[in-house]
Amino acid sequence: MRAAVAWVGRHPVLCFFVVFAIFPWVVPYKSLATQVLIYGLFALGFNLLYGYTGLLSFGSAAYWGLGAYGTGIALAKLKVGSLWVALGMGLGAALLGGLVFGFFCLRRRGIYFAMLTLAFAQLLYFVGFHLADWTGGDDGLRGIAVPPLTLPGLAIPLERSVSFYYFTLLVVGLAVAALKRILDSPFGAVLQAIRENADRATACGYDISRIKHLSFVFYALFAGLAGGLDALRLTVVPIESLHWSTSGQVVIMTLLGGAGTFFGPFVGAAAFLVLEDSISVITESWPLVIGAVFMLFVLFLPRGIWGTLIGGLQRR
Amino acid sequence: MHRRTFVKTAAAAAATLGFPGVLRAQGAGPVRIGMPLPLTGPFAALAKDMQQGAVLGVDELNAKGGILGRKVEVLFRDDQLKPQVGAQRTQELIEKEQCQFIVGGLAAHVQMAINEQTKKAKILYVSTSQSDEISAKPDTSPITFHEALNPTITSRTVGKWIIENLGKRWWIVYADYAWGKQNNAVLNETNKKLGGTVLGSTPYPLGSAEFSAHLPKIQAAKPEVLVSVTPGADNIAFLKQAASFGMRSQMKIAQPLLWISYLKEGGPELYDGIYGGINWYWELQDTIPTARKFVEASMKKFNMPPGDYGAYSYSGVLEVARGAELAKSTDADKVADALRKNPQYDHFKGKQWWRACDNKSFQDMWIVKGRGPGKTKGEWGLADVIAKVPANEELDRTCAEKGHA
Amino acid sequence: MPDVSLAALAAQVFTGLVLGMIYVLLAIGLSLIFGLMTVVNFSHGALYMLGAYVGFTLLRFTGSFATALVLAPLLVGLLGLFVERFLIRPLYGRRPDDPLLLTFGLSLVVVETARLIWGKIGLTLDPPRALAGAVNLGFTYFPTYRLFVIAVTALVLVGLWLFLEKTNVGLVIRAGSRDPLMVRALGFDVGRIWFLVFGIGAGLAGLAGILAGPMRGAYAEMGVTIIIESFVVVVVGGMGSLLGAVVSGLIIGQIVSLTTFFAPKLAEIVVFITMAIVLLLRPSGLFGEAGLLE
């Protein structure tokens, strides 16, 4: 078993594709699987910032929202014809947000950093709410028509749930591969050094403020890509995309799965969403259930599901 | 477990699950109506009302043999008042639960998200949310129906009544989001058209219960009528604070809508003498015969009369059934056409009809006034019916204004 | 821009004072808990809500607002003691963010449980007859109940100040807020002090809740927005600084009230703009200590 886990650790991208290729048939319905992929990607970005770099952000909704609105506005208002261009515009908006907000927020640390990230996210929420001509205001952005997927020589329509799932898998898979590259690089090692002891990392001569900023930008890009994909999935961008409850959800998912682990975010997103889906049918008190579950995890399973799993296997 | 066994089992499982065609049973089995609604959150009381109304509708249908001879089921899902959740629940209802129809949505922004999913999946949707946009382009579609009232209709109706009966000098306080802004705009327009004056229009952030900042200013302006466009819990907080500043004796207070659930929650002292519009009130059974059986069924099953949102969901469910029976099918386009070809209906409160261009339901509404302490009748006799405003297509925007035709 | 009559403006300032007092009650609790335990208590808003809800039930049972006003904060404080001892204490020594995360989960649980117990419809809390009505302040009529809130909060603050300044326990708490390590090094049973401080903080939140209930109504979500605003107040004042909590609470109460008067659309985010400006200019808030978890 230990050998299997080690093998998975060496080929995470391959395992990711294999697992998620059959995933839609494991969950109750297809669009749940798509939701897991997208929120998994969102959590992947948050995990990079929190799990690997040690920076807790309360403002993740800002970058998810920038990605969602960027992609949505490109399709609904600017009538962009290409799927890739629309996603690209969402990414661009998230990049801008990451660069600018990141610059300001990272001037402080700890709880002050966290509150600044929240402040910027709330600011964006306010702007999104009131710029109703562009964003649809609190009714949300509608009128998003998803163009077909254009690959060399092909134009694949994405109306069916299954087709859209595999398109999402492709995009998220590429992001996962990118993350692997990032983490394997010297940059990735420094991130974790910063998480363990920021002062020591500085003492070693690293320009940690630049590195933190870069990590923040990557976090924003992953979140923005996830937001853009969700805009395509729902064909509507609700104003709640920018609300702090969205930021709170990604924190719970990451922790449930295991912060600082590679697959933790996807495990956490799957656990959260599948649990929510099944529990919501039985009871209206879903917040009670997830709140209690979350508390139990913090108390007894701080490494999350995946973190505890691999930790346990490695010890034996 | 042996690796080979695992692989074989996994393959078999994947193969079985990978044939949704086997699981999908067309043309047999129950007819399922999915209903997303905010069971948790600030409008939970209204959602409970909606749930009960739907159950009454389903009971009534099943007592008569169901839809097309098949049993009717309604599946409730909590949309948590969030569009993403509403959209996800709708997808689950359609893909996993195989619902043939969706009725519901309470909050306007959630209903938009629900509508996007039903349009994509080609499922008929009857919205029970108060929204101006759902029946207009680009949101509407041939299979999107709107059962509830909207801000244009309610504010034109109530606005006109206020000018004619309470006074021409108004001050409006409104929640700064789509529903509030729409009502405010229509109230202003109606007031101006009928020769009144709006002394001021104050927005406030929805859900923020601090009104005391605005009230001294309003008092100083001395309006004849204070028009409150404050939904949900804000309504109670607003009336409380206005009362604490002594404004009740200085001016009349009116609202485009009054909700029975909040009349109950706030109590007769708070709502004494407050005027508002309403789509349905159970005491109407005294004058409308079809209302009587609806109220009796509700009293029998739930020990309380149906409220305004219960009325919408009851009607929505029955209309879905009527359309399916007429079309002899549950296919969205066929049912939609059938409803447009046979637009009139009367399930419990008098004549209603669907307008062809925008699938909008037109229906009577009433002006009611809160009863003070000591004047209420039992637990739910909380308002007096003051006037009836018959259904009239001129109260809503024209087809052209909504982008049709 | 509305016509600025001095009377209306003065009424607004008073309104800001009432709002500020509620913020102060909440911020002091948060700041005490953070200063001493470096715990960010996300369940503070839920405790505020419980104060109003428990107060409602007490009022129903005893018919006396005074009883409810005294007992509700005590009961919420008791819950706070329980939370510290059994939920937060086990997290000592682990990751610094764990108590924050735990209290976040706790807030979901508390709010939902309240809905299950008290129902989904909000509760109506009425102030006693004696406090209904308005007082003629000369330049405007102001609701009596709100003046009562100002008076009660001021009394509680004075009491708290006396406790912190004049008693030995208070001394240890103040020292612990400044330098928790040192206090431990000096041999004090920090666990007991944390226990007490969390209880006091929770009690203050409960008091704020039952005071605010008759003004704004009591509903399960009432703690949700106010907790973010309270965090802003604490951060602006400086985490761990009690003077900061008071000054910042009063200032932000005024800022919100005046913004509502002059530019109502901005009222929602003026709190965040203020925080962003303060944090970028003064890194540790107005009165915070540099280096205290910056």
What's the helix and strand layout?
The complex is a heterotrimer of chains A (316), B (405) and C (294).
Chain A: H1 2-10, H2 12-22, H3 30-52, H4 60-76, H5 83-105, H6 110-130, H7 132-135, E1 149-151, E2 154-156, H8 161-184, H9 186-196, H10 198-203, H11 208-234, H12 244-257, H13 264-282, H14 286-300, H15 304-315
Antiparallel strand pairs in A: 1-2
Chain B: H1 3-17, H2 20-23, E1 31-37, H3 44-63, E2 72-78, H4 83-95, E3 101-104, H5 108-121, E4 124-127, E5 144-146, H6 151-165, E6 169-175, H7 178-193, E7 197-204, H8 215-221, E8 225-229, H9 233-244, E9 252-255, H10 260-266, H11 268-271, E10 275-278, H12 289-302, H13 308-327, H14 332-341, E11 344-345, E12 352-355, E13 360-362, E14 365-370, E15 383-389
Helix pairs in contact in B: 3-13, 4-5, 6-7, 13-14
Chain C: H1 6-37, H2 44-62, H3 65-88, H4 98-118, E1 134-136, E2 141-143, H5 144-166, H6 168-178, H7 180-185, H8 190-216, H9 222-237, H10 242-262, H11 267-281
Antiparallel strand pairs in C: 1-2
Helix pairs in contact in C: 1-5, 1-6, 1-8, 1-9, 1-10, 2-3, 2-4, 2-8, 2-9, 3-8, 5-6, 9-10, 9-11, 10-11
Considering the chains and any ligands shown, give keywords for the structure:
heterotrimer; A: 316 residues; mainly alpha; two-stranded antiparallel sheet; C: 294 residues; ABC transporter involved in vitamin B12 uptake, BtuC; two-stranded antiparallel ribbon; 73% helix
Give me a quick take on this structure.
The complex is a heterotrimer of chains A (316), B (405) and C (294). Chain B contains 14 helices and 15 strands.
The class by helix and strand makeup of chain C works out as mainly alpha
> What fraction strand of chain C?
under 5%
Q: Shape of chain B from CA axes?
A: globular
Helix-strand pattern of chain C? HHHHEEHHHHHHH
Q: How many helices of chain B? A: 14
Main sheet of chain C?
2 strands, antiparallel
Describe the oligomeric state of these chains in a short phrase. heterotrimer
Helix content of chain B: 40-55%
What's the CATH superfamily of the largest domain in chain B, by name?
Response regulator
Report what the structure shows:
The complex is a heterotrimer of chains A (316), B (405) and C (294). With 316 residues, chain A is an all-alpha fold. Chain A has helices spanning 2-10, 12-22, 30-52, 60-76, 83-105, 110-130, 132-135, 161-184, 186-196, 198-203, 208-234, 244-257, 264-282, 286-300, 304-315; strands spanning 149-151, 154-156. A two-stranded antiparallel sheet of chain A has the order 1-2. In chain A, strand 1 and strand 2 form a beta hairpin. In chain A, helix 2 packs antiparallel against helix 8 and helix 3 runs parallel beside helix 8. The radius of gyration of chain A is 19 Å and the shape is globular. The model of chain A has no long low-confidence stretch (mean pLDDT 91). In chain B, helix 4 packs parallel to helix 5 (108-121). In chain B, strand 3 (101-104), helix 5 (108-121) and strand 4 form a beta-alpha-beta unit. In chain B, the strands form 3 sheets. A 7-stranded mixed beta sheet of chain B has the order 7-6-8-9-10-14-15, covered by helices on one side. A 5-stranded parallel beta sheet of chain B has the order 2-1-3-4-5, sandwiched between helices. Chain B has 2 domains: 10-149 and 288-362, Rossmann fold (3-Layer(aba) Sandwich); 152-278 and 365-395, Response regulator (Rossmann fold), CATH 3.40.50. Chain B has 405 residues and is α/β, with parallel strands linked by helices. Chain B is built from 14 helices and 15 strands. In chain C, helix 1 packs parallel to helix 5 (144-166), helix 1 runs antiparallel to helix 8 and helix 2 (44-62) packs across helix 8 (190-216). In chain C, strand 1 and strand 2 (141-143) form a beta hairpin. The longest helix of chain C has 32 residues, at 6-37. Chain C has one domain: ABC transporter involved in vitamin B12 uptake, BtuC. Chain C has helices at residues 6-37, 44-62, 65-88, 98-118, 144-166, 168-178, 180-185, 190-216, 222-237, 242-262, 267-281, and strands at residues 134-136, 141-143. Chain C is mainly alpha-helical. The chains are: A mainly alpha (316), B alpha/beta (405), C mainly alpha (294). Chains in contact: A-B, A-C, B-C. The interface between A and C is large, with 34 and 42 residues.
